[in-house]
Amino acid sequence: MSADAVEDHAWARIVTDAPQYRPVRVSMSYEPAEDPKAVRFAFPGGMGWTFPRELLETGLRAPARIGDVEVWPCGRVQAVMEFHSPDGVAVVQFDSNVLDRFLRHTYAAAGAGAGAADHLSA
């Protein structure tokens, strides 16, 4: 991992039709040297998705989808991400502040300064 890379971890909830959710630890990473416009979310077992950082930012405010990843706000403090694969769909719920903090770290690492991160959700 390069010096300007960002890696955060978050607990998220896999959404199912079962009465209880299943917590899962998600690794969120950003490697500006590899692709300054992309982030990666990886799940236990090696499954992961790389998608535009802009999708995450937009999806915290309004529903957005690019390719196999969809993001939308869920109430005032949560966001839902839907990940599509040939094996099916994973629906995962995050606290929005965790995703917002990760985005702020990526903009700081990229040297985008406060200007780029000013319009992120609070």
Report on the architecture of this protein.
This protein is an alpha+beta fold and 122 residues long. The chain has one domain (6-111): Roll (Transcriptional Co-activator pc4, Chain A). The protein is built from three helices and eight strands; from the N terminus they run ββββαββββαα. An eight-stranded antiparallel β-sheet has the order 4-3-2-1-8-7-6-5. A hairpin with a 2-residue loop joins β5 and β6 (69-74). Mean pLDDT is 86; it is low at 112-119.
Q: What proportion of the residues form beta strands (DSSP E)?
A: 35-45%
CATH third-level topology:
Transcriptional Co-activator pc4, Chain A
Strand arrangement in the largest pleated sheet: 4-3-2-1-8-7-6-5
Q: How far apart, in Å, are the first and last alpha carbons?
A: 29 Å
* Class by alpha and beta content: alpha+beta
Largest sheet: 8 strands, antiparallel
Count of distinct strands: 8
- The ordered string of helix (H) and strand (E) elements is EEEEHEEEEHH
Number of helices: 3
The low-confidence runs, each spanning 5 or more residues with pLDDT under 50, are: 112-119
Number of domains: 1
Mean pLDDT rating:
86
Write down the overall geometry.
globular
Which CATH architecture?
A: Roll
Give the CATH H-level superfamily: Sporulation-specific cell division protein SsgB
CATH class: Mainly Beta
